[in-house]
Amino acid sequence: MLKVWFLGTGTSQGIPVIGSNHSVCRSEDPRDKRLRVSVWIQWEGHSYVIDCGPDF
């Protein structure tokens, strides 16, 4: 069975972006805090991490 986890769904810088005045970057809502994009896939007993950045 194929399993996929999204480990981060932010931008290449993550969210919030330092110094940004965008409402999402200033938000106190924890759902607006996102790590850099990366994906973990498990398939047939093997694990693959795609686009593993510094947040990993």
Describe the structure.
- Helices cover 7% and strands 30% of the residues.
- The chain has 56 residues and is mainly β.
- A 3-stranded antiparallel β-sheet has the order 1-2-3, with no helix packed on it.
- The protein is elongated and about 45 Å long.
- The relative contact order is 0.31.
What are the key terms here?
single chain; 3-stranded antiparallel β-sheet; mainly beta
Strand content: 25-35%
Q: What proportion of the residues is helical, as a percent range?
A: under 10%
Biggest sheet, in brief?
Answer: 3 strands, antiparallel
Number of folding domains?
Answer: 1
Order of helices and strands: EHEE
Mean residue pLDDT = 89
The secondary structure category is mainly beta
The helix count comes to 1
Shape: elongated
- N- to C-terminal distance: 24 Å
What is the count of β-strands? 3
- The oligomeric state of the chains shown is single chain
Strands of the biggest beta sheet: in what spatial order?
Answer: 1-2-3
User: Any low-confidence stretches, pLDDT <50, length ≥5?
Assistant: none
Query: Over the alpha carbons, how many angstroms does the gyration radius reach?
Result: 14 Å
